[in-house]
Amino acid sequence: MNLAVISFGLGVLFLQTRAVLPSSALLLVPALALMLPAMCRRGPVVRLALLLGCFLIGVAWAGWRAEWRLADELGSAWEGQDIEVVGVVSGLPQDFERGVRFEFAIEQRLTPGAVVPSQVQLAWYHGKQAAPAVAPGQRWQFTVRLKRPHGGANPGGFDYDAWLLERGIRATGYVRPGAATRMDDFVWRPATIVQALRATVRQNFARLLPAEHYPWQGILTALAVGDQKAVDSDLWVVFNRTGTIHLMSISGLHVTLVAGLVGGLVGFGWRRVPALALRCPAQRAVLAAAVLAAFAYALLAGFGVPAQRTLYMLLVAAAALWSGRLVAPSRILALALLLVLIVDPWSPLAPGFWLSFGAVAALLYIGSAVLGTGTGDGWRQRLRGWGLVQWAATLASLPVLMLVFQQFPLVSPLANALAVPVIS
Known about the structure:
5-stranded mixed barrel
């Protein structure tokens, strides 16, 4: 099964490197033809055919999702034209020097015949005036000018087009001056409720811990709601030079810490109430509480790829333990990979995807080897195991860091050895 998931993932990745989309429907025919013999036969040739079929299904799935998303586009005739729209602020607004930038989900096109995508990114320039009060969940009527996504094509540079495509943003633009009307203060939807909670947490940190007195306020904001832009630029330099920048982006470390803390507290209380313990074993209550806490924190933190991977791994592990089955850690990681690729086939374009799955795979491999040696509980054995795990995570992330960022701090292993437990 693990190899089948990896083959599916390679198909998804292959599609993301193509300049032209293949026909998803035509790929399914040979894929099914290759996979059907595996239902009644066994052997290396049949297994190879099964893996090739999984690869083609991965290509077809990613291609179908790409076709569906690319179809939601800005009409070429409407680029740079005034368009009147009604929609809802759907993401955390980001202030910049001359205004505010935010994601906007368009509900109505009031301009007759306008061909406009459902999700856009807008900038609202205020100049010398006070910044407009834009908050998640608000419904506005804007007159906007839009353009199709454009980004630099420099080798090794940030792929702005792919980043927007992954987030479902199919056009960017700005609000025309004097052409904005707020229609509703808040639209009650699950997505807007989550974004409003994120904005409230960020505002509370900014209000209670002013940045001029507490320069680390942005760190707390980043750890709480995943808003990395709140971290001061000087601190980013420190994190980058010490190789601890991953501690400022929501990862499996943060999600599992929250899940473990909530699960431990629930278990502590559950075991002390006999009626609850008789109705449901404490272990199952702990699993349910940990998964719910992980899900809530992943949503609050922006639901990035590392948070998704951790949440899906927890779901699979909790389901297995709840049913009384033992599932190999590699199987749990493979199922989490499959779920991430199904939900977000663009995730392999993000460095966090490779850092997350690569580091966890290395930790599982080294961790099983350390446990299998049966070295005992002495402090020397514990120190040796800790060192092996630390170097496994470092070496696993080294190729990705060199490929994406073209640098690797030599002090990173030592800095992480101190920073990980401190941040935890």
